[in-house]
Amino acid sequence: MAADRIEALIARMTLEEKAGQLGVFADMVRPFAPDVNPDANVRNAGQVLEQVRAGRVGTLFNGVGAAAGREIQRVAVEESRLGIPVLLAADVIHGMRTVFPIPLGEAASFEPALAERSARATAIEATAAGLHWTFAPAVDIARDQRWGRGAESSGEDVTLGCAFAAARVRGFQGDDLRAHDALLATPKHFAAYGAVAAGLEYAQVDLSPQTLHDVHLAPFRAALAAGARTLMTAFNDINGVPASANRWLLTDLLRGQWAFDGVVVSDYTADMELIAHGYAADERDATAKAFLAGLDLSMQSGFYGAHLPGLVESGQVPMAVLDASVRRLLRLKEAIGLFDDPYRSLDPAREADTAHLPAHDALARDAARRSIVLLKNEGALLPLRRGGQKIALIGPFAQDRDNLEGCWTLFGDKTRYVTLEAGVRAALEAAALLEVVPGCALEAPLDGGIEAAVAAARRADVAVLALGEPQRYSGEAQSRLEIVLPAAQQALAEAVAATGAPLVVLLRNGRALALHGAVRDAAAIAVTWYLGTQTGHAVADVLFGAYSPSARLPVSFPQHSGQQPFFYNRPRSGRPELPGMAEFKSRWREISDAPLYPFGHGLGYARFAYAAPRLNTPQLAWDGTLVVTTRVANTGAVAGEEVVQLYVHDRVASRVRPVRELKAFAKIALAPGEARDVVFHIDRGHLAFSGADGAYRAEPGVFDLWVAPSSATGEPVDFELLPA
Ligand code: BGC
């Protein structure tokens, strides 16, 4: 029935209407991020509606609003020849009106179920605001912290990345795609966008097929297995062929091997950029190369509308290929119920009711505090006391309202944002206990700023320094040369440290940073990323011990910027540095190539002790299951949560294997004195990799296995994988 309806439509469509469906254009009818440049939007609304009326557009993106959305849809359904409804998409990455932590921060929770809940809440708000489709989650693996878009990802690890990719897809889409609050998900950017050389945005990707497969493609598979119906291609080339015109990637692998039958959308003007890449001679050539490679939808260039009809007429593009792409898009519209109810997710009453849901504030606060990583806490300086302790809150982020949300937040309700100062004040017993001094601007000194900060620190029992990167340092096109704090902030930290006041550093950041001097040496350091709407309350919960921090690093913090790309699961060197043996070893002249804080590291206010892991057998049969049981005890004085991490290492293989790889993790809550067995099940699927010949399989032999609180701790046990 549905299929008949789609085939009947395709049979009636002109070439121009078919090509038009495949176009994705900026939604200038509705305000793109309401406070930004409304004049420009109004000026172009008429043209966009005219395109809709003429059946020359299938999808509009980055506008918002139910009432105006209804008007767009009315024009599509009532005034265009075939009445095909448009899809309404947007970049809703980590929250809509309620802003949740940046995806990298949320990944630090090591709680995919939390990401699923925040994605669900985001979908509820986004669909109420007149959207069907989000260009998220970004599932790029970010192994180089200079790259700015790691903030949108889940960090450097594949297992963690896959778990969060799948959870976010499930959360956005919900159980029933036809429900009015289901939001289509789009894993992006396909593929290997995070592997750009030197972390330089839009640069080349030159990569072994094995690493491409095992590292960069894995989260896409996880996202598709979780039900994603669309993918967005990446800007970069892969081994010389742009991803957006890469027939091997988009057709042989995706449609062939993976049997994906959903829709592939280009990134913004990625088809046009084939010309700049020098991969296509002109617009028509770029259109042919992208489309024939398997790119269904073209975003913003207008190339498909302009050139596909001519390419079909000349025989260069077979009509059947065009029909196949149109069919995929119409099926997507059908799958979310648009043909039966073109006005789904366009209900102004629901939009008004959903404008502020207190339950989402509560979730945002919980997600935010669960994302804070406590790196260091010497002398148990934290938690601070709510009374009887004078606090100097110093730094450019103390009162800041403009750097709470992080990159890619187009529609956040700024009136609800809780600053750090507001959160700390709300937690304190008396206002007189807090003195707040900016000390410097984000990137520059302030007149008298350091003097005021030093004086405040002298008057206080503890100085809390709110430092970090301005939020525009991460996100698209924000590659950094050095992943350090701005010099003015470092100078502020040095001056405050020189007072001798005990120092707590609260970092705001969209990537791993290299910490130096007084910041590195502070007694306590917490990574707070960009936490969104509830920032102040969430940080105060951790600062004053209402919540014991439970997040762990999803990216390694190096000692120095020059170590990038740095990731914990690197292949073994033939000359690793060993204790006491540094000459002619794999190290830098100046420092060892170790992290300052490893992947998986993070502290809380409880203490946990691990017993040695017990295995059900020292020999894992080819089709068997290794049951790994580890007793973990809370030996501290307060309740807390621990992220129990299982790593493996393959001792001898046909390719050099990583020193360790995360294969499983579990977050458990333990009361003081409580102990629990944490059980993991490992089979040969966990041990598989792309071998020297490219075949994906496990290789029999001996493996080391750790159950540990980070990627750099624990004592291994070993087991053997027996041959088939
Ligand atoms: C970004 C994508 C985004 C698209 C649409 C591009 O510049 O790379 O991640 O979805 O714009 O806004």
UniProtKB/TrEMBL annotation:
Q: Which UniProt key words apply to this protein?
A: Glycosidase, Hydrolase, Signal
Q: Does the keyword Hydrolase apply?
A: yes
Q: Give the matching SUPFAM superfamilies.
A: (Trans)glycosidases (SSF51445), Beta-D-glucan exohydrolase, C-terminal domain (SSF52279)
User: Matching PROSITE patterns, A to Z?
Assistant: GLYCOSYL_HYDROL_F3
- Give me the reactions it catalyses: Hydrolysis of terminal, non-reducing beta-D-glucosyl residues with release of beta-D-glucose
Record domain Fibronectin type III-like: where: 642-711
Spell out the family assignment given in the record's similarity comment.
Answer: Belongs to the glycosyl hydrolase 3 family.
Protein name (Swiss-Prot/TrEMBL): beta-glucosidase
Organism per entry: Stenotrophomonas mori
The organism that produces this protein has a lineage beginning with:
Bacteria, Pseudomonadati, Pseudomonadota, Gammaproteobacteria, Lysobacterales
